[in-house]
Write a structure and sequence with these properties.
By secondary structure, the protein is an alpha/beta fold.
């Protein structure tokens, strides 16, 4: 698939000149109210900020960081960095000081855009220049307005230079440096080029997932490649986009924006499903809800077989929808055509539940190393339990050991300053080794069964895919927030569990429910016992900023409790 533009800057210029007065980026002001901009208004600020970076002495290829939640200023800063010929290094605002400083120093960042005073203070002195995006800047820090003022003066004194910089950028120039979450070790900086992002934008545009008629809400962190693709796709398609990374206010954002399309991580859907079912079970209309959901499940099964809903079922579904199911969709604003799920595995039962309520969830898959989006289910070709079909231009190959290999224009240039690490994940003929195990269906949909490196090998030599068991436990016991299966080189498996917010189960109450799930598993995958621990968080180091469990950290932290579940029986077996 040939690229439409030589760089993201060229793509941006095309959007601005094609639809200058169309609705562009929307954000929330200090008082919480929403405001909108046009593409031309965005470009004026991007140009001023880019010129401001040039005034600071930023040169082509140098890195500038952004430490900020998802908001309009994030995208403006990112575009300005690219238009100045530099590359963006993304940092999660929830990252620890040590993680943040490591990234800034490893990437050799010259400028850091910090969201507020608190973020500015912790990066001050780590990079030469700090620009504060919101609020009154702390001492020694530039405000966004000050940078724009400098930029307009520089641009006037250097006519045509910004245009020349943009014109000189090509497909292989570095655009973004995104550091992996670091679930197993030190984060690695993934180098993504202008060609990578243009490829992703073209692929999404070709599929027609979003259009200028949509209202697109981005609530995920733009520091992650998944959300970066969404932002780039909005620019490529000229889609009105609302940015709000305050997850705690998501319900308010959904009601205010009433999006027609948005992306989420699976945990948002899992939590929503639990709360909906809990509320329905306690309410006076619980029998009506169960009936309506049953009708929805029947209709969903018919649709998934490729048949129309007709006759009596059609009438029953219309009644169920009017009385109950529409209320579920209204929780998400009531206008969604589809939700796109990514970033972690989604249990098929969750997607089936929402489809029964008339809300389509399209699961996708990709790695930071493949520019995030490699496969996705389509509105007209979805299969729950799969991560969809390849994007246009993406190739998939299954290795002899079941590992998924990816090819195409989204593959990274390599790990920053780490040729050995790059060689470990790239085959000699240029395929990316994902570390995921999976298979392709006859229709070309990809099914992921587990992580290659996460395979548990018990003392008896049995291979166990932990995600399968973990997802089943969370599906059967909705009060569980996280489940981590443990049993490598042990005689059997146990699980470390955390409860969802508000759940009050004790170990004695939870243990029999966990053991009951064993009936759905082969004997060697049975969970013999559990350790119930406090909720995992990013702050305590047990979760990555993208909410993935850091398996080695958790297992080391609770090693004593885990050992206690084995000691008696292991001693007896040894005797």
């Amino acid at each position: 698939m040939s690229a439409s533009f030589p760089s993201v800057v060229a793509l941006w210029r095309h959007r601005v000149t094609s639809t200058p007065d169309a609705a562009a980026l929307h954000g929330r002001g200090p008082d919480g109210s929403w405001y909108g901009t046009t593409w031309a208004e965005c470009d004026a600020r991007v140009r001023a900020l880019a010129a401001g970076l040039c005034a600071l002495g930023i040169e082509r290829g140098e890195r500038c960081a952004i430490v900020c939640h998802t908001r309009v200023e994030w995208m403006l800063a990112d575009l300005a960095i690219l238009c100045a010929g530099a590359a963006t290094t993304t940092v999660y605002p929830e990252s620890t000081d040590s993680e943040c400083h490591f990234i800034l120093q490893h990437a050799d960042c010259k400028v850091c855009f910090a969201e507020d005073a608190a973020q500015a203070r912790r990066v001050l002195g780590v990079v030469p220049t700090v620009v504060q995006l919101t609020g009154r800047p702390v001492q020694g820090v530039l405000s966004l307005d000050e940078l724009e003022t400098r930029g307009r003066a520089w641009d006037e004194a250097n006519p045509g230079v910004l245009q020349e910089i943009g014109d000189s950028l090509g497909p292989e120039d570095l655009a973004t440096l995104i550091y992996t979450s670091g679930t197993t070790g030190i984060p690695k900086g993934v180098e993504l080029t202008h060609a990578n992002w243009v490829f992703e934008g073209d692929a999404v545009d070709k599929m027609g997932l979003i259009s200028p008629q949509d209202r697109h809400l981005i609530c995920l962190p733009l520091a992650h490649s998944f959300a970066k693709v969404l932002g780039l796709a909005s620019i490529r398609g000229g889609v009105p986009t609302y940015l709000d990374g305050v997850i705690g206010d998501l319900a308010l954002a959904l009601q205010a924006v009433r999006p027609t399309v948005m992306a989420v991580v699976p945990r948002i859907l899992e939590r929503s499903r639990v709360r909906i079912l809990e509320a329905a079970s306690r309410g006076p209309r619980k029998r009506l809800f169960r009936w309506a959901l049953g009708v929805g499940e029947h209709a969903s099964s018919v649709v998934r077989r490729g048949k129309p809903v007709r006759g009596l079922l059609s009438l029953r579904f219309a009644a169920a929808d009017r009385l109950v199911l529409q209320e579920v969709r209204n929780l998400f604003g009531g206008q969604l055509r589809a939700l796109i799920s990514g970033g972690a595995p989604l249990e098929a039962e969750v997607a089936e539940f929402f489809h029964s309520c008339g809300l389509l969830v399209l699961e996708g898959y990709g790695l930071t190393e493949s520019s995030a989006a490699s496969t996705v289910n389509r509105i007209d070709a979805f299969q729950f339990g799969t991560v969809g079909q390849p994007l246009p231009g993406v190739q998939i190959r299954i290795a002899d050991d079941g590992e998924i290999l990816l090819g195409g224009g989204g593959l990274m240039r390599g790990y920053h300053q780490d040729p050995e690490g790059t060689a470990e994940v790239m085959t000699e003929d240029g395929w990316l080794m994902t570390g995921d195990i999976g298979r392709l269906t006859e229709s070309g949909h990809l099914i992921i069964t587990d992580r290659k490196k996460d395979i548990i090998v018990t003392a008896g030599g049995k291979n166990i895919a932990p995600q399968k068991v973990e997802n089943l436990l969370k599906a059967r016991i909705p009060e569980l927030e996280h489940v981590l299966l443990h049993g490598d080189r042990r005689p059997w498996c146990v699980a470390i569990c955390t409860l969802s917010e508000g759940a009050t189960l004790s170990v004695d109450e939870l243990r029999p429910r966990v053991l009951e799930v064993n009936g759905e598993l082969p004997r060697f995958e049975h969970v013999r016992d559990i350790v119930l621990v406090p909720m995992f968080t990013v702050a305590d180091g047990t979760l990555t900023p993208t909410l993935k469990v850091k398996r080695p950290v958790v297992e080391e932290r609770y090693a004593t409790q885990l050992d206690a579940l084995y000691i008696d029986d292991e001693t007896l077996e040894a005797l």
